[in-house]
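Quick one: structure tokens for this chain, please?
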Amino acid sequence: MSGEFETAIPEMPGVAPRLYGIAALVAAIVLVGLWLILRFTAADLARDVQAWQEKLNLIAESRAAEINGWVEGNVKELQTLSDNPSLQLYMTELQMQKAPDAGDEPAQKTYLRNLLLFTAQRAGFGSGGNAASIPADVQPESKSGLAIIDAGGQPIVSTPMLAAVRDRLLEYAKQPASAEPALIDISKDNDGTPMIGFIAPVFSIQGDRTAGGQIGRIIAMKTVGDNLFGLLKYPGATEKTLESVLVRTNDGKLEYISPLEDGTATLGKQTPLDPAASAEAALVQTIGNFVSDQKDYRERTVLATSRAIAGTPWTLIVKIDREEALAQSGERRAGMAVFFFLIIASIVLIVVAVWWHAHSRRSLMLSGYFRALAAQAKAQERLLRLVADHQPEPIYIVDAGHSFRFANRQAAAEANMAEDSMAGKTLADVRGYARADHIAQQCDQARKDGRITYDVQRIRQKNNEEKIVRSAYVPLAHIPLATLPEPTPGVLVVEQDISEVVQQRERRLEIQRQLVEMLIRLVDKRDPFAANHSQLVADIAQEIAVGMGLDEVTAETAKTAASLMNIGKIVVPAELLTKTKSLSADEKRTIHDSMNAAAELLAGIRFDGPVADAIRQWQEKWDGTGPLGLKGETILMPARIIAVANTFVGMISPRSWRTALTVEAANKFLLDQSGSHFDRRVVITLINYVENQSGRAWLKTTLDGQKKAA
């Protein structure tokens, strides 16, 4: 990349925010306006629906009152007749008399027949005519009629009626007696004519008005047509789809009693009694409610309400198509919405026009500021190159596509390329595919995490020498070059050659390892019964640390401390180390002091981890009963690992005073002491290791070696 940059005039500070502000203002005006329009239309619609709810409630109340009055009027006619003292007296006398001679009719029966004929003509229960009794030799003349039945269910007198009507009436006479008037619900006779009936009990004069105190009943039948269904029409209604219907439940279905506007005759339609199936079914389930968005039996959305008809199983449904009911108000709302939208559009145009005028004038006045800003950006780029070119490390910037956007002099020299030729090259073009892939992954991770990340990579050179590079990856929200559109994210990479530092450390560690091995061999020669003990403890301590997922320094500390834990035996007399009999208290104290001496001997040697402290603490107990009184997590992790590893190796190894324990016995002992002497996590990790394939191989090698030594 050359020292001169192509200058691109950046957007002036303040212009973009102003543009965004105007856009936000316009968007806010539009959104608020639309919200207000929607709110207005929703409120207006709710008002219209509420108005229709009130109107339908009024219609439903008036139609229900008319139908209730019709039913009550018929019942009242029969009750007036049944409460007639003459009727009660004559019925009592007739039931007390003996059967008259053939052809000789008592005067009481004649009076009762004439009374029935008069009532039938007045109340619409027959067409009149000569009196006739109910027996089969009487010629029927009407579908409607009245009959007086005695307490035993036998007819006394009746008005003329068809045989089919007479037969149905006699069937109703067999029903159990009731102290209250009853309704015989609407049904069709044999020729499809809808019929309705009423029953009124007759009591004796001054008798008990109970079911058992009846002396008979009056049963009335009449055809149903406009005399009932004509009451469903609301006087003065002009709405085409306004409809009032009577419904009832029948065998788990909804049955339409009255004729329907679609031409269905009386009792001609049944639908499921499911509130979700139709508005009528929903209103039968919740009488008195109002629905505004359900479909009726015609599959048309309606506004509807319901009322119960007293003394009957009927429900009155009053409904109107939602489309017709809200048509005029919908046109009004559409007109208002267009009006308000035009107002909003006018406000937006005014705001945009004012801003455009102000922006044009401001852009013209501040063109000089743009030129100054471009010069400043160019100066900043020169400063970036000046600083970067005087750094000894390669420094470069790559974008999100892993292409070079900037490289300092050192990076260009390392790539054997000219600085200006690196711009636009990919990482693979400059670093090679293997190294480029690694760098690209680190750059992506740094941008994803949004923080500086570090990485160490070993690179094999052409001369077969190894180069160790430590790289820092700094994520950039925008690469600071004026030639790039903002934002152009990227990563600043700074590479540092640390080969010499790492190699010196590795040489130091190698010397340190050689010194440790020498000391171990020295201790093993003085204590042949514990030969290789330290090495075995070190090996298994490292496996435990790796199994627990500990870092490299902690694992190395555990291994080194385990290797050197017995170095204090140098100061113990050889005859004491090889003694085959039980040790005395003083001799045990000497052995214990030698372990503390190991920590003191190593205290002045610098390790990467706390080796001396780990040796000093490995005899501590998890419950705090050890020599130093340390407890739980306060004990160093390498010390906790050594305690478990040393105990395990010691138990499976033979000693001068005992034979070796089995692995199973050693594992059981460690588990029993977990939580008191040992850290349970360390014990579990050890057991997992010795039970897996590599652990079993290590045990076999160790135990075979012990047998050969024996």
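DSSP finds 23 helices and 16 strands in the chain.
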